[in-house]
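Thread amino acids onto this structure.
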């Protein structure tokens, strides 16, 4: 029975991986297609990569998306970490339930509703105080931070819930200030979760189409908006080349992040072992 179960799980895992990665592999292969018609194979060529690198619109959208993603990920990680600390480490406080509900609301709210509400908010704000004068980089960044910090907060909460507080309590008993405990013990142990939250917020920002399309303006096209607008006119081989570059970039970032998190986890385990040995 155990052998049959193991075989069934292996088959399902293989099917799942094939379903997930075969489309990506085909996309990479067809990015080297010489033919203008995507379904028709015309031989191997890097022609569309040359076309892609000569496109000013594409690189303008790439730079705009990267700027927004980096700023969004940084502020979302900062605010999400503070929110997670407030929910887990500050105990019960007034309106805690309301704060927690509002914190996770963007996770279950449809993106269309979020984008529409942010659009109405920016229009109302412009009528009241005259800002923002136009929708674009600033409004997209604020919108992305709004929903990204919820994801980071959930990750930080999960990380804090699984962390042992003995080291923090021992440091407080030995006379360390709360801020010193936060910066010297809590945040270093939170680092893997913060890195994961930063990467998730960065990816969500690069991937967002619906919310960005609501809060953007003329001349401020992010990469997903540009790709979607071109796909509507027909599938083009240079889009396959662009998607291949994005896949390679994401794979490298994930590998680097995994290496950093592994090293930090090993270092944390070593520090905890040394601290436990000294206390004993």
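Threaded sequence (280 positions):
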């Amino acid at each position: 029975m155990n052998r049959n179960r193991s075989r069934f799980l292996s088959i399902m895992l293989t099917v799942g991986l094939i379903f997930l990665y075969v489309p990506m592999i085909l996309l990479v292969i067809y990015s080297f297609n010489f033919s203008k018609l995507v379904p028709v194979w015309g031989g191997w060529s890097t022609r569309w990569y040359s076309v892609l690198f000569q496109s000013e619109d594409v690189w303008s959208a790439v730079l705009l998306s990267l700027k927004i993603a980096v700023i969004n990920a940084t502020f979302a990680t900062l605010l999400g970490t503070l929110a997670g600390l407030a929910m887990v480490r500050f105990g019960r406080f007034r309106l805690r339930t309301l704060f927690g509900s509002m914190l996770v609301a963007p996770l279950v709210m449809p993106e269309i509703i979020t984008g529409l509400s942010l659009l109405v908010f920016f229009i109302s704000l412009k009528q009241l105080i005259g800002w923002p004068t136009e929708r674009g980089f600033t409004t997209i960044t604020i919108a992305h931070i709004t929903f990204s910090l919820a994801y980071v907060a959930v990750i930080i909460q999960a990380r804090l819930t699984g962390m042992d507080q003995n080291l923090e309590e021992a440091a407080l008993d030995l006379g360390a200030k709360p801020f010193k405990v936060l910066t010297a013990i809590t945040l270093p142990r939170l680092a893997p979760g913060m890195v994961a939250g930063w990467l998730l917020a960065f990816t969500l920002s690069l991937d967002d189409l619906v919310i960005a399309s609501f809060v953007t303006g003329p001349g401020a096209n992010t990469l997903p908006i540009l790709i979607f607008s071109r796909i509507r006119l027909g599938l083009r081989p240079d889009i396959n080349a662009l998607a291949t570059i994005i896949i390679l970039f994401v794979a490298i970032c994930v590998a680097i992040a995994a290496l950093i998190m592994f090293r930090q986890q090993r270092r944390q385990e070593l520090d905890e072992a040394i601290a436990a040995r000294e206390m004993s």
